[in-house]
TrEMBL record:
This is Uncharacterized protein. It comes from Smittium simulii. In the C-terminal section; belongs to the saccharopine dehydrogenase family. GO terms for molecular function: saccharopine dehydrogenase activity. It comes from the Eukaryota.
Amino acid sequence: MSLQLSGIRREDKNIWERRAPLTPKYVSKIIGKTNTKVYVQPSNNRIFPDHAYEKAGAIISEDLSNADIILAIKETPISKLIPNKTYCMFSHTHKAQEYNKNLLSSFLEKNIRVLDYELIRNPKSLSRLVFFGKFAGYAGMIDGIHGLGQKMLAMGYNTPLINVAMSHTYPTLNSAKLHLREVGKNIKANGFPKEFGPVVFTITGSGNVSQGVQEIFECLPHEYIDSSELHNLVQNFNGEFSKLNKIYGVKVTAKDYIENKDNGVFDYSEYKQYPSKYMSSFHKKIAPYTTMLANGLYWDTKFPKILTKQHLKLLQADPNNKFRMLSISDISCDISGSIESTYKSSSISTPFFYYDAENDIYHENIIDRGVQMMTIDNLPTELPLESSENFSESLYPIALKMIKNDFNDPVVQKSIITENGKLKDEHKHLYSFLNQNNTYSDKISVKSNEKKKVFLAGSGLVTKPLVNFLLNQKNIQVSIASNNISEANALASSFEEVNVLDFDICNRDSVDKMVMDHDIVVSMLPASLHPKLALSAIKNKKNMVTASYISPDMQKLDQSAKDAGITILSELGLDPGIDHCSAMKIIDDIKSRGGKVTSFISWCGGLPAPENSKNPLGYKFSWSPQGVLIAGLNSAKFKLGGKIIEIEGSKLLENKFETVPLYNGFNFEGLANRDSLSYADAYGLDANNIHNMLRGTLRYKGYSELMSCFVKLGFLDNTPYGKNLNSIPFNNRTEFCKYVLNINSGDFETAKKRISEILNIGTNSDTVLNVVRALQSFGMIENCESTNCKESNTHTSTNLGVFCNILQQNLNYRLFEKDMVALYHEFIAEFSPGVYEIHTSSLITYGTNLSNGIINDTAMSKTVGIPAAIGAKILLSDQVKIKGVIRPTHKEIYEPVLKTLTTLGAEDLIRFEESSKKVNLEQLKSSSLAYNLKY
C-alpha cells in the first residue's frame, strides 16, 4: 500500500486553543520511521513554535491540500474542510450534537473520512486510548479552587485560596502543583475562617478526569474521609483549628447517593438495567456538607441527575447552608446533565457564572447567595504543553497506522464515523438526526438538481463570510455583482462556482435583467444605493436583504413591496441586526411573563482587539472608513433618567459618555447612536413611559475628543472641491494638511500653533499635542519619524474623502492583527411595584489573525455578513409571511436567526451570553448600567 501524507492544521476554534495533536518529537519519529512528508500550518498560538516543527523535518505550509490525512484537536470549520481527505479530530458529532449537525452533513457532502478520537478504544475493554481527560481534571480542579477563593472573598473572607490562579497562567503543570503546595503551607499555618469550616471537597467519577482532580487536590493539606462521616464531621464542628488547617476530601460513587425510589436500597445491577427506578439523594446525603463539588462523572440521559435545580433550591433555602455548597466545578460539562444548573459551557475568558436557585436566575456577578458554576468545556487547553505531549504519545501509533494506509486495523476502523460519503454502519442512526425538522423549516424548496440563485450586490470588506455561509447550504448558487471587478474576482477566487457580474447601479435595464435571473437579492452596497436596487427587486418580485438602516427612501417603498408580495428584510447585520434579534427575544420573554420593560440600554462597537489598538484613535477600519467617520456626525436622540436628550450631529463627538463600564478589561467610552426613541415602537415599547432608551456606539477612550478636534479643524468637511481634480491645491498628505489648516509650512511647531488658534486652547495643552502627534503619525506633518509617511495620491472630491483615504492607509489591519466586536444590552423590567429584573445579553467575538499575508475573516465581516446570509436563507425557505420593508424584530425572523447562529459549530462565531436577576429598587440603582452611566 502507498503511504499517506499527513498534515497538522492550525487550531482556530477560539483564542485559547494552543494544543497540538502531534508534538515536534513525534513528527520527527513519523518522518524517520516512514520517510513521508508532514505538512504543518503555521500558528502563533500553538504551544510549539513553527521552527520546532521545521527542525523536526516538517514542511510549514498554509496549504494542506497535499496532505491525505489532516490531524486536528477541535472541529474543523466547515469552510476550511478540504473534500476527499481523511480528518482526525474531536468532531462532537457521533452523539447527534445539534450544534454540529451542519458539520456532520458536510463530512458526507465533501466525501470526508472522519476519525473521532473519542471512538479510538481498546477492542477488549472498550476503554479510550487517546484522551485529554486527566488534564481536564487537572485544569478543572485548579480553576475550581481559584473560583472558590474568589467566592469566599466576595462573601467578605480572605483565605489562602485567593492566591491560586487560573491554570492557564502557570507555565507548566508542575509549576501549578508547586504553587498549590505553597498555598497549602499557608492553609496549614493559618487555616480557613471558622465560618467555612470544615472545608470539604466532594469528587465524583472514577475515570481519568477524577484521577486528575485527586492529583491536584492532594497538593493541598488534606484528609480523605468516607461519605458516611460527613454529617458528624460538620455537625460536631466547634471551631477546632485542627479541622480548619486542611481540606477534607470525599470520593463518592453512585452507591453513596443513588437509591431505589421504593425501598431506598442501591443495587448496582438493577441500577444499570433499570435506572428509571432510582433517584439521587445527593442533596440530602452529600451536598449539605460540601464546600466545592468537582464533578468528573460520565453521565447518560437515562440516569438520574446528581443535582437538580430543585435540589439546589432546597439547599439554598436552608438557613444553615450559607457557608456550604459554594461552588461547583462541573468538569464533565454536560449541558443540563448530571448537574442541571449547567445550562451552558463557560469560557476560559469568563470561567464562572452564578446560579440563584431560589429565584431560578443565572447571572454573571458574584453574590452572597447562590452557587458558583465553572463549566469550561475545553479545560485541557489551559495546560497545552503537557496535555499535547501526553495526547501525542497516545496518538502516535494510531497515526502511524493511518500513514501506512492501514485503515482496516480494528482500532482505526471502529473510530471512523463517515467514509466514502456515507455514515458507517454503527452510526447509521444519525441519518434520522440529519433529516429531522428544526423549529422552523430551513429546507429550501427547489426542483431536482436546480439551485436557488442569490444576487449579491457588492464585494466589499464584509462579504466573504456571507458568500461562504450561502455556499455551505445545499442548492445555492451565488453571483457577485460589483463595479470593482478586480475586487469581486479576488473574492470569488476563494470559492468554487461563483459568478462575477459587471454591475452599474445606474444602468436600470442591466440591473433589472440581473435581478430577474436570480431568486433573491442581497445588497451590501452603500446604504444610499439600496432604494435603487429595491426598485428592481419590487419590479421583478424578488425578496431582498440588506444590513443597513432603513432610510426614509427605503421606508417609502414599504407599500410597493407589499403590493408586489415581497419581503425587503433590512437591518440584518450587526448593529443594526443581531442586536435587534437578541433584544426582541428578551423583550418578548419579559412581556410573556407579565413584565413591563422600563429601561433599555444597548451598546455596540467594532474595534481592534486591545493588543492591536495602539494608535492615536485606538481604532482600525474593518468596514467602510467613510461610514465610520460620518457616523460620528449623525444627530442623536435618546432618553436617560426620564429626560429626552437631543444632540446635533456637529456636537455629537463633544457629548460623549465618558465611561461605559461593561467589562473590567475594556476602557470604553460611548456615543449615542442616531434616534434611539424611534426603536421604541419597533420593539413594542412605550416611548412616553420608558425611563431609559439608549442605543450607543462603543469606542476606546480618547477617540471622541481627537475626532471632535478633526471635525473642528475641517478634516471631515464634506463640501466638494469641484469637478476639476487638477485644480486641487495639494498633491500629498503634508500639502493636504497645510491646505485644511491654512498654513504655509507643514512643520510641527507651525501646525501646533495653528491648531491651538482654531481650537482656542493652549499651545502646549494635552489636546493640541495629541492632535499634532496624531497628524504626525498619519504622515501629514513634515519631518515626522513615523513609518507611515509615504506620499500617496490623496486626490478625492472632499476633505472627508481625502482624510478617509489617509486614515485607511494608516489604520488598516496588518499581519497577525485582529479585530473585535462588542455588543451589550441591558433591560430593566418591572413585574409589580418594587419588584424588578435586570436582564443582560452580551457578545464579544474576535476576528481571525492575519497570517502569512492572507486576509482571514474579521469579526465585523462575520457579524454583518453571516446574519444577512441567514436572512437570505430564511427568505428562500418561504417561511416568512410578513411582506414589505421590515426589520428582524418579528419572531419568525429573529428566532431562526438566533437558532442558526448557535449551530455554526466549530467556527464558534457569534454567541450571546445572557443573564438575569431579581432586584429591589435600591439594588437596581446600585447595580444597573442605566443608573451608572456618566454623561
